[in-house]
Amino acid sequence: MDPPPRTPESIAQQSREQTPADLWESVSDHKVYEGSRRRTCYSDAGSRYWMRLSALDCAHIPKPRLTPKMLVRGTMLLALLLAAILPAGSANEKKITVYSGISNYSLPVTDRNSLEYVGLLEVIEPLGRNVNSRTDGLRWKLHFNDGDAEFTAGKSRAKVRGRDVDLPGNFLLESGRGLVPLTSLGTLLPRLLGTSITFNPGSRRLFVGNVATHFTAQLSRTTPPRLVMNFSAPVNPTIATEPGRLRMSFNREPVVAPGTPTLTFDDAAIPSAVFSENNGAAEIAVNGTAPLMASFSNDGRTITIAPAPQQMSAPSAPAGVPGTAPATPSAANPSSAAAPGVRHFFAVVDASHGGDDRGAALSDKLAEKDVTLALARRLRQELESRGMSTLVLRDSDVNLSFDQRAIFTNTAHPAIYIALHAASDGKGVRLYTAMIPAGGENNGPFVAWDTAQTHFLPVSQIAAQGVASELARRQIQVRTLVAPVRPLNNLIAAAIAVEVAPPGTDVMDLNLPAYQQNVVSAVANGLLAVRDRLGVPQ
Q1: What CATH superfamily is the domain 95-208?
Q2: For 251-385, where are the E strands, in sequence order?
Q3: Per-residue pLDDT tens for 458-497?
Q4: Which secondary-structure segment (H or E) carries 405?
Q5: What is 215-307's CATH number?
Q6: CATH architecture of the domain formed by 317-534
Q7: Dihedral of alpha carbons 250, 299, 378, 225, sign
Q8: Which end of the chain has fewer CB atoms < 10 Å from its terminal CB, N or C?
Q9: What pTM does this model have?
Q10: 302, 299, 308: which is closest to 332 by C-alpha?
Q11: Residue 279 and residue 98: Cα distance in Å, rounded?
């Protein structure tokens, strides 16, 4: 699980054969956390694999020595961090986004002489095999694959593949960089690249070839209603919610408008959706009269938007009565009928990893993401059969970021969040609750993102104890641990992570339906036993 990520089995076997000094050649960090019985040290080898060492090994690990390799890695990491952080810190920074079959990327746009300019080499370099430029006095010469272009500083006429091209403003040469007016790209690029270009200067979005992602939107007449959006290619938008609206921002996907930018639906709960594009990004804003939440399916090609389940207070059902229908229709099963006299209990189940994030390599044929998805679907069935409405965040092979998982969950206001993980080492089940960073108290009106779980730790521990008791009753080996497992720290609800290991020595037993069913049934029974102690979030 991540963090701390699990070592692939082959690396775990090799870790004992390596000396601690050898490990430090590729170690960039060193972390220690307390388990229930033994102290475990995790060393971050690069940024991909973790070495699990015994407490004895940890005691003998020397401080890392600074090597040239580490200096280079640190410089590259700093550059990547700055590239990721600085644009986000300047919301008004102008940018252009280029979409192509090779790569999608964004570049800064600068203002010069009342016009918008962009570096031409930066625009085309990712699109070719042999791309370079050189300066000869005031002349700037550009080579792209089998074509050439020549520009002169202060002039508005250029020569591209031997033909004159007029620019809407003068060409600028700054520190060897060739800057062209932004609006000239629609004329320059088709001649230079030799392919069709679609450019929207107003939104600063440029499409090279036929790469656009189209979508349709259809409102289903269910209770509650669901807006089903199907995309022609996988998408992974950033999602934000506000009163009466859910916004999906597409910063890297070439999503384009349907026939009309405003879609209206004859429904009071979800009356409309609006497509817009600006500053190199597209956005779909879905309007609703109640809080909305989104779920992904069909490998990221389908996004379903529905009203978030509303928490209601009603008389409690007897604690040991299974088979009761959900108090309100489930977001994952809208047709479920409501049973009278049942207190509504809403759960979010999160299958870890997904998409290009396979999770731990449990074996040559078994990936963690597949096991967690199977467990999530079984757990949903078990919870709903016990009267607990359930939403599975990842119900297909799609990757969600930790922040997306946290935002979706916090928007839904569940009584319990259950993250599912799988591991090849050990036996049975490990239950995790969040480890809050030192000094992470929330005393003011604002809650820190990394310590949002602080006030919910007591109910999270109650949930973990309830599940642990039921697992032990079924003679499934269980351990309870505290660890910095994301996104637990970011959640404002009771939250636990359930890591399932094989029942014996054969990792393929993780795929046994009977074993999976026994584990998720125990989790569901354990939560049922303590649900009245978890409370209903307001």
Answers
A1: Copper amine oxidase-like, N-terminal domain (3.30.457.10)
A2: 262-264, 272-278, 281-287, 292-297, 302-307, 346-351
A3: 999 999 999 999 999 999 999 999 888 889 999 999 999 9
A4: helix 402-412
A5: 2.60.40.3470
A6: 3-Layer(aba) Sandwich (3.40)
A7: positive
A8: C
A9: 0.50
A10: 308
A11: 12
